[in-house]
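Marked as duplicate of an earlier ticket. Keeping the data here for the record.
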Amino acid sequence: MPEHVCPWWIGYLLVSPLRRLFYKPELIVAPFAKEGMTVLEVGPGMGFFTLPMARFVGADGKIICIDVQEKMIKSLMRRAAGAGLSDRIITRITSGNSLHVEDFTNCVDFALLFAVVHEVSNQEKLFREIYTTLKAGSLVLLSEPKGHVTLEDFNQTLKIAKQIGYDVIASPDIKRSHSAVLRKNKNLGNV
C-alpha cells in the first residue's frame, strides 16, 4: 500500500510540542473517541493522537494502531508505557499490501486517518479494509495536509470513500488540512 511513506525520523517532529501550535490533538479527537470505544488509527507515527485517544477511551477501550514502520510503532509503545497507557494500545506492523485487520471485523467504533491516506497507493483497498472493521454507523475522521494534497485530490479520495459505502457527514475545520467526517452507511453490508 505505501506510495510515499514519511521517514521514521520525522516521527520525532510529529510528536514535538511545536506541532501543538497547529494541532491540538485532544480537541481534534474529543468529539469522536469516547469511554469504552475501540478505535482504529492507521499511520499513528509515534502517537501524537494515540495517547490522547487512549486517555479518552479509558481502561475498557482499545486503540488499534497500524503502521508500516516498526521504528514508529516501537517509539509509540515507549511513549505509551511512559504515560501508563500501553495496556490500551494494540499495535500492528503491516506489510504494506494490507492492513491485516480481518480479526477486527465489525469491532471498531471510530477510525482516524490523519495525514496518511495520501501516502497510500491503493486508497480503494485501504477504505474497503477499514470499512470491514467498522460497526454500522461508525465514524471516520479523514484529514489530509493541504501542503501535500490538493483540494482536487482530496475530493477524489472522498469519491473513492463514497463508492465503498461511506457517507460524508461533516467537514470539520482543522488548520492547514482538508478534512471530512465519514460514516459507514448503515444500509450496506460488508463490502
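See parent ticket for discussion. Strands lie at 38-42, 62-67, 89-93, 108-114, 134-145, 166-170, 177-184.
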